[in-house]
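Following up on my earlier message about 2-acetamido-2-deoxy-beta-D-glucopyranose. Here are the inputs again, as you asked, copied directly from the submission form:
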Amino acid sequence: MIVHTGLSLFILWFLHHVDFSWAERFTVVGPSHSIVSYVGEDVILPASLSPALDAEGFEVRWFTTNIYTPLLLYADYKIINLIDSRRALFQEKLKSGNVSLIVQSVRVSDEGVYTCLVASGPLEEDVKITLNVEVLGAQPSITMSSTEGQKTRLECSAEKWNPQPEVTWRDMNGADVTSQSTIKSERDSEGLLRVSSVLLVKEEYNVFSCLMRSKAPKPDWPSELNIYSEGSDGVKLSSLPFAQTF
Ligand SMILES: *[C@@H]1O[C@H](CO)[C@@H](O)[C@H](O)[C@H]1NC(C)=O
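Thanks, got it. Here's what our run produced:
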């Protein structure tokens, strides 16, 4: 009987011990907004444990579309799987619950929703972080491609943007005439956008400018086009880019 009691006590102690070490509940905390980066920059997708437990003995899995093909898998105190050496954890920071992913020299193809899944024993918690990669494209140029009825068709286009920029048209008085324009864009083989905005205007003396602006606070690229009537020659145009923003 003494042996039996001893065994029961041992089992109880064991269960209690295991229960105690597994009971350290945590959550994975990320930013409340998406992360914006420019092509070529290094970007950190910030994720940390709350409370700030030591994650060195945990499993940390970063993936986008498929949980079973992670971009990075850390387990058994080391990096087990890494698809691309541009990505890393701050391994010395795992101790303080920092499970952030760094992505070096960001590409457009890195864009997406990332999941950071942290597992400790039976506990699993995750956080999702959206990475947007911006490319400030080429300066737009305006062409007068055709006339449709009494109107002249002005097309303002530029290549290699991501995401789609804001396009603003103004006339000579600075009035915003963007609402009369239509915009379309298509992706090229690199995944970047060719953006084209069309404005139909009456053939009269006027100056139109087209501005493409990144939604993030970086430089703008304006482009200006002068249209003026000249006798019976009809409309002439000159494209006059200038390095000044509105
Ligand atoms: C994690 O550590 C890195 C490197 O020191 C730091 O830049 C980042 O802000 C930390 N992230 C969090 C969420 O604490």
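One observation from looking it over: Residues 44, 46, 48, 90, 93, 98, 100 surround 2-acetamido-2-deoxy-beta-D-glucopyranose (CB under 6 Å). Hope that helps, and feel free to reply on this thread.
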